[in-house]
Design a protein that fits this description.
Distance between the termini: 52 Å
CATH architecture of the largest domain: 3-Layer(aba) Sandwich
Radius of gyration: 21 Å
Largest sheet: 5 strands, mixed
Helix content: 40-55%
Order of helices and strands: HHHEEHEHEHEHEHEH
Number of strands: 7
Strand content: 5-15%
Shape: elongated
Oligomer: single chain
Strand order of the largest sheet: 4-3-5-6-7
Number of helices: 9
Structural class: alpha/beta
CATH topology of the largest domain: Dna Topoisomerase Vi A Subunit, Chain: A, domain 2
């Protein structure tokens, strides 16, 4: 792809680094921005800069937040006895969109994957186990994507807490094995939350 401007080429190169965006799509986006008023581009730049500089992780659940404690954790109407374990912010958003779950969350920040060099120490598993040890949580819900890595992570956490006084369940397998949670439709995901099963039972499936 030949560019008449080095500035244009650099912008296209940067945009094409985003997931799912190739050089042609990046070029269309950059040319679109060039046609917009300068205020529009400045607004986008400011939003992205503030996102990088001001975004926080909730000190309780590790969810992305604007403040120290996210809105979900700070909501007194949420059931603090229920804790749903998810991989990342996208899964929190997916479950919240079902309007079927009123407990709290714990965001791991990924899944155990030796191939990708991600071990338990790279996730927020230790703080999760400490939460369970405090005794407030009565049920822990595993809501990781039903992939090999997700199941491995579920099992690892389960072994860390199996002797503690907490019920452990997993979302029903209405979510197809191998699928990513964020791509599930809201009805299926909502039913999976409502019809969750004891984790021990899932081990025998």
């Amino acid at each position: 792809m030949n560019f008449s401007s080095k500035l244009l080429e650099n912008a296209v190169d940067e945009v094409s680094q985003l997931p799912g965006i190739g050089k042609r799509t990046a070029l269309r986006l950059v040319l679109y921005l060039l046609k917009q008023p300068k205020e529009r581009t400045a607004s986008l730049t400011t939003a992205l800069t503030r996102l990088r500089e001001e975004i926080k992780l909730c000190k309780k659940c590790h969810n992305i937040s604007d403040v120290e404690v996210c809105e979900i954790c700070a909501n007194p109407n949420r059931d603090e006895k229920l804790l749903c374990v998810v991989e990342d912010i996208r899964d929190v958003m997916a479950i919240e969109s079902t309007a079927q779950y009123r407990g709290l969350y714990h965001v791991l920040g990924g899944k155990i994957s030796p191939i990708e060099g991600v071990g338990p120490q790279n996730l927020t598993i230790e703080s999760l186990v400490n939460k369970v040890k405090e005794g407030t949580i009565k049920e822990l819900i595993f809501a990781l994507s039903p992939t090999m890595e997700g199941d491995t992570t579920n099992f690892y956490i389960y072994k860390q807490i199996e002797k503690l006084d907490v019920a452990v369940s997993t979302i029903a397998r209405g979510i197809a094995v191998g699928d990513e949670l964020e791509y599930a439709d809201e009805v299926t995901l909502g039913r999976s939350i409502l019809h969750r099963v004891p984790f021990e039972s899932s081990l025998r499936i």
